[in-house]
Amino acid sequence: MSWHVLGAGSLGSLWAARLARAGVPVQLILRSSERLAAYRAASGLTLIEDGQASVYPIAAQLPTAATPIRRLLVACKAYDAEEAVAQVAHRLQPGAELVLLQNGLGAQQAIAARWPQTRCLFVSSTEGAYREADWRVVFAGRGQNWLGDPQGGAEPDWLQHLDDAGIPHCWSPDITARLWRKLALNCAINPLTVLHDCRNGELGNHHAEVDALCAELVQLLQANGLNEAATGLREQVWQVVDATAANYSSMHQDVRQHRRTEVGYLLGHACASADRLGLALPRLHDLHRRLRQHLAARGLPQD
Ligand code: NAD
Ligand code: KPL
After folding, report:
1. Is 103 in the pocket of ligand 1 (CB under 6 A)?
2. Is residue 182 flagged as an active site residue?
3. CA-to-CA distance for 213 and 191, rounded, in angstroms?
4. Of 16, 122, 135, 215, which shows the fewest CB atoms inside 10 Å?
5. From edge to edge, which strands make up the β-sheet containing 136-141?
6. Ligand 1 pocket residue status of 11, Cβ below 6 Å
7. Quick check: 254 and 261 in contact, CB under 8 A?
8. For residue 172, what pLDDT band results from cuts at 50, 70 and 90?
9. What tens digit of pLDDT does each residue of 77-130 get?
10. Among 97, 89, 121, 91, which residue's Cα sits nearest to residue 108?
11. Per-residue confidence (pLDDT) for residue 1, from 0 to 100
């Protein structure tokens, strides 16, 4: 059975190239005939690993193609994911599997609720990739992919494809908690690096601010019934800050390159969840307000 990959950006290309070279059938779904023509002119996807470039002439099609979809890897940004799935929804077979690669939370739940006849699996990835140019992706950081079924279903047998393709993966029995923990880490680190215009390591100069955010994020996780995900959050935040001290966070890079951020699915999701639970988290709300102001001042979307 073919994998359809929706979103031939950084992570979508990284997954597609590795699956294709392992002999797993893959089809890319590109958003327009212009993009399809440009892709065909480039003769395929180029993946650069350890400085070595290889071209993968993976088949590509439009959302309007006639073939049915049974397994769809959704590799768009969180803010594009639902609309992108809507464009191929008429092709989804009953019981089709959607593998959702989005960071943060909110997009995955919206997709699962809108297409209840599908099985949605969520992924939390710490692999790193970026687009050097159209159809050229650099594999920038080895990591892990945690996959899980938020409904508690069993591991799919196609995890074997990921083994064959050398895509690191681990089945997570509580993927939603894992995504919440990553969201909390991102909320404690990323917005402050944007507002202070600093590398992760420089957050050491704002220790009290980070600690206070961690305390509210722990309250939020606990209020969501995620006691385990709340445990040791502050310590892990400082570990990540140390381990990535020289790096700029992904949100900082987005803002610097004038790209839309995924704030609505990180801090926005956290604040909306607190509001729904009637939980007062003034520092998190203040951070969200300051970040949105910062984005608006630069002409970037606030959600
Ligand atoms: P990206 O911007 O590089 O790629 C997204 C792709 O989706 C783009 O090529 C875009 O054109 C395409 N797209 C958007 N709408 C579409 C549509 N309607 N039809 C077809 N294609 C469409 O994004 P990315 O960096 O690969 O990130 C994807 C998700 O993975 C994000 O939620 C991100 O936070 C998460 N993530 C990324 C990395 C990374 O290193 N890049 C690491 C971990 C998690
Ligand atoms: O995931 C990250 C990001 O930059 O998005 C880290 C490195 C954990 C910082 O929050």
Report:
1. yes
2. yes
3. 11
4. 215
5. 52-56, 45-49, 136-141, 128-133
6. yes
7. yes
8. very high
9. 999 999 999 999 999 999 999 999 999 999 999 999 999 999 999 999 999 999
10. 121
11. 85
